[in-house]
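FW: tagging you since you asked about this chain on Friday. Here's the raw sequence from the shared folder, copied in full. Didn't touch anything.
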Amino acid sequence: MKKYFYPEKEKWEDMLQRPVLDREKLTGLVRDIFNRIRLEGDKALREYTVRYDGYMPECLEISRADMEEAVAGVSVPLKNAMDMATDNIRKFHEAQKVVEPEVETTPGVTCWRERRPIDSVGLYIPGGTAPLFSSVLMLAIPAAIAGCREVILCSPGDENGKIVPEILYAAGLAGVKRVFRIGGAQAIAAMALGTETVPRVDKIFGPGNQYVTAAKQWAQQTGTAIDIPAGPSEVLVIADDSARADWVAADLLSQAEHGPDSQVVLVTWSEKLAARVEKEVEQQLKVLPRREIAGRSLQHGKIILCRDDREAVEISNRYAPEHLILSVVHPEEMLRGIRHAGSVFLGHYTPESAGDYASGTNHTLPTNGYARTFGGVSLDSYIKKMTVQKITPEGLQHIGDAIEVMAAAEGLEGHRKAVEVRRRRKDKR
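HL: got it, structure written out here
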């Protein structure tokens, strides 16, 4: 990990740079994939699956029999763990249902908002070396609570075209009825455009590598919405002398093992802790099963020694991390100064892993500094809100003059007349 000792503010921007992706190359590849799938549909999907995933799917959609078989392929302890996570995720997102009040802005003028679920959503779940079945729960449960009419899921299969049973079991647990064995940018294109087999959706959710991220961004140009701008996973830990070095090191490695382009940052004003954490990271890395991946990530990880807790908070706000761990004596006090973070973990006993799996909060979060302007996935991500207003004849008299004067000032006579003709009527229907 790179070390920075009491850096001056003018150097913070360079210090906090994320790994840079070759966006021009990615955009060209993604554009070609979208164009082919638009023209050739399932045929192109199958060819891309052979090229990138190494198998030819006879059927793109998982059968009901395969879904039922997955139940037997998951251990009882894991089923119990997933049941607990499901319960907590459901509780947290159910609590986000809000009935907004009607507001009488002027006597006779009532305004409110109506909530409606997005009709169809597509969920992308990575496979590969770490199949993220937890993301199925995080994405499908709020979709079910919101009442989305159609929820589909895409995930790449193994060399035999099999999706790991944990993903299929989680899909069934969360109420997803249609699952497709396709991955990568081609899966995003299929959901954005629709093919003979894969239905087009209104919004796409889910994490993925740089190709999936680029494809989601391209999907927006086709008229398909996405959950949040996202990139490689990241964590920033603020720690003081009260923190245990081995716990902090474990938190850093828990993110580093996600992928070689993940980023981990430690910010502290304790030289002693910084040195201990660095040694702990080296020791724990040696026995980590994904040490090769984590080791590559640590090459652009950072240990920042700052002057005090206020500067630590300022550095964190400048970075705007996806995950922020406050491993300090008084985390609630420090939280008051945090303005930009995807999800915050307070105190020594709150590892980021809890949010990834079972505490109940959603782990689909903004990365790459987007926490300055975006929050993570929530129930609202699956809902659109339409404003409604109802005006009585008396109400129109109350605000009519203001509307007519403003419309006339903007030169929109039709707008003004729409009010005037109503106000001239003698009856009050």
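FW: The chain has three domains: 2-19+232-360, 23-104+119-226, 392-424.
HL: agreed, and The mean pLDDT is 94.
FW: great, closing this out.
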